[in-house]
Amino acid sequence: MAPVDSADARGGTGADGSAGARLQALAVQLRLANGEINRLVHAFAHAQGLHPTDVQALSAILDADAPLTPGRLRDHLGLTSGAVTACLDRLERSGHIRRARESTDRRVVHLYYEPTAKAVARSFFMPLADAAARARDAAGPGEVEAAIRFLGRLNGELARIPAPPR
Fold this sequence. Notes:
Blueprint: H1 19-48, H2 52-63, H3 70-77, H4 81-93, E1 97-100, E2 110-113, H5 115-124, H6 126-138, H7 143-159
Antiparallel strand pairs: 1-2
Helix pairs in contact: 1-2, 2-4, 3-4
């Protein structure tokens, strides 16, 4: 989305309350939230001796509905096979993940986030969880549920956008 110069965009609806102004205001708020989360992600990566992409990989492994394979992770992150292998090597060396061959097809590798590493991340990101809890507690009736529904739909739409070829 294009940058917005209007100070009105930071506070909710635009001066005219139009759908376009509300969309711009939403875009600003999403960028601000993304920037703050990225700031914390970069700090975690630095503290753990990782690259920020490694933290994206950890998030993908944690949030997956089934164990990820390196190929699915590659597709999710939009990286080359070599970049994913280097990322997984760093994560495995640092104790954040483990690779497991669990099927009869020994070529299939599943990725798991190590419980001790999850505890380290949970501790580091506790201020983020606390901030979310304070925002949730300040929300009016139905606001959190509406935000979850909206973000779910937005993420579904974003997932449909193909990544540019590399």
